[in-house]
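Folds vary. Our protein:
___
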Amino acid sequence: MNKTVILILLCGWWNMALSQTTDGEFIDFHVKNMPISEVIQLLSERTNIDISFSNRFFENKPPVTISMKQVNGIDILKHLLDGTGINFKLLDDQVVLYREDIPQKEKFTISGFIEDAETGEKLIGANVYIPKLDRGTITNAYGFFSISLPEGKQEIVFSYLGSEASSSILELRENTRLSIALEQSVTLIEVVVTPKNSASNNNRSSVTEDHLNSKMVKIQPELGGESDVIRTAMLLPGVQTGADGLGGLHVRGGNPDQNLMLLDGVPVYNASHLLGIFSIYNTNAIRSAKLVKGPFSARYGGRISSIFDVHTREGNLKRWSGEAAIGLVSFNGTVEGPFIKDRGSVLLTFRRTHSNFFLEQANQDIFYDNDRGIFDYHFYDLNFKANFAFSKRDNLFLSYYSGGDQFLFEVGQDYQIIGDPLERIAKYQYSNDVTWGNNIVSLRWNHLFSDKLFSNTTLTFSEYQFRNAALATLDIPEEVVENRDQYYFYDLFTDNQDFSGKIDFDYNSGPDHYIKFGFGLSHHEFTPEAAFVQRDTNIAIESLDLNDLLDEVQGKTYQGLQSYFYIEDQIRINDEITIYPGLRLSSFSILENRFFNVEPRFRADYRLSAKWLFVFGESRMVQYLHQINVSGLSTPDDVWYPANRFAPPQTSWQTDVGLFYSSANGMEFSVEAYHKFMDNIYALNDSIPFLSEDQQIDNEVVSGSGWGYGLEVMVKKDFKHGGGWISYSASWAERRYSSLNIGQTYPYSIDRRHMLHIFGYFSFLKNFSVSSTWTIGSANPRLIVSEEDFINNIYPIEVSEPGRKNEIRATPYHRLDLALTYALTKKRLKHQLKISLYNVFNRSNTAYSRLYNEDGEWKTTPVSVLPTVPSLSYQIRY
């Protein structure tokens, strides 16, 4: 009884002492997104409480928001420290904060899927964040997450780019499986910018990943009424290309073939339409896309420069819907819906050009100078996807893509025969037929073994075909020269087929480890064909047919086998340090050639504070395929061939160092430095034409090394009604071949020292929005192409002194694009009208310089592809 009374008196004395410290004052206290240490200092000033503490107590704690009315300082302090592991006591008229000894609690696993509430589609890269612990994770490529947490009450926040955040409070007493549905955001801001390393997003797989989605892409100005995810990626630092997209995608000094272009996990050999002006990725079919520049995960392999990973949408599981769009170049249609509600759905999208608006002029500028004749060009894309959940643990997906380009040019000219007294006419006919495209099939099975182990098994087939065939005939009247008709026939054909199988595992082994591992096998078939014939003939010219000549060309098929195994771990050392070690083992065999490679990967993150993150990465990549650039413009007829004992696999080592900052008000800043060394890079000997009747590709290629290094800076910010980013690159790209440029190192063709991109958007008057992109770049080396040789697909003539290759540079690059969008929703129909203006200032950006002969003197003239191009597109969704 006496002890109880004494305890009550002591408690009363304690509360009275604290009350005296606060002078009995009651205040209103409001702060928003302020670090805890600053809040405590403000509280001390407002209440005259002398509070002693170490700033290290709150280094990794997220900012807080408090709104309390008529409370005393101690109640505010209790609220601030709740759940932080920090307590306080009174010592000599001071309130002293100290760490509590928190007993170890049993860990339980929370796992599940995060999906879109409107469509039921799984969300890739959605954030799962626990504010109390300042920890989190993200969903994998199939919308699955798993994280281990201490028992007890836990608040969990779920968020995703373009969706409203959602939170749940769980009392953890056992392993728990969740199914989370996030509502789509009605604000444009959340679609475009999200912090990269904030507390709610610092567990993404790599801070050097740039995530894009279809909404982000559709905001930007369009070309010919076509939004494009690769053109959006070109606005990121470290990404280079030729004028208006020509020349392919070059990432950190690499070649276009060194980018692993993925569509639903399947490698794509050629991801471009119209020489890179458009891509095969239909925006309406895209669910997510990311560009990985490094450091690389061990899960990825087969290319040495970058990863461009695109996943298509799975179809609406809730209701049937669709959309149709038409622009000045193409029309686009989408239909999707459930065949079994909430369990199975289908998605079908189709895009095809309907007009040669500006395309004919672009092709004429690229391929031909003065010739005019029959011209036809079109491309198409077809995406189909079906998915079905046949249990709570199993999902099956079937996806199919088919797309391609067809270019046809025919011209006929009559020539008066010089010296013929009767002035008879020789007839010249030229026909060029170019087709290329991809076919991809993927069957995927997701299986959840337990709350900690998830697997994805995939079977795929991929085919890329290209054919460039030309026939030129000269019909000379027999009365002039007997049996002297001439014809020229050219054919280049390639057929690459891959049959692959792989299985990937995600294993959450505990709070401090997240392991990924898997293996795969690919069977490659390469069938190249080449024919080059120029001769006189006594065959009747009118009987020659291009298709008949093509049937006579026979190619040899080469078969190769590629396999790999990888394992990587996310190891949480402490609250500040997380490391990501990984290892990939790969092999490739073709004919008598066998290759085996070890590819180590490593990344370390160091949290300097709640806002600052330091990253270091080192990775080795191996590529078992080579692509030889024929024209210098990364055209579809660039030749693919497998590694062999004469041409070993390409390899690269890349080192990355980065510093990242983000704040709760939507400000994001990053600066990255990188160095990349590439070996066994092959190019054509620029002193010898590529194809003739007695030459083979193995005799015409030379081996060398390459370097890419530079600095990348990016600043992002969102506002109430708008946002945008600024990206800047200072970069160097170099090559060295023992038999080129007298063995001296020279600038690579896309070596552009400075590149600046500015993108911004603003919404106003409820239904209107404007956007703009502004690109400024210093000059890159000038590409000089012989008109005749380029038409005939012979390597461009190099005009430079020995040892000074690529020292002559073109003019600097500059382009401004604008767009105005009007959106209106009436009942169940959503209308959108978009007006874009590409290259507002009609800047003549040089794609290459054309070499021609005038009166016996060789001259060059710059060639630009796209002038000012107005665009109009209309879209309706239902």
The mean pLDDT is 81. Residues 2-21 form the longest helix (20 residues). The longest strand covers residues 485-510.
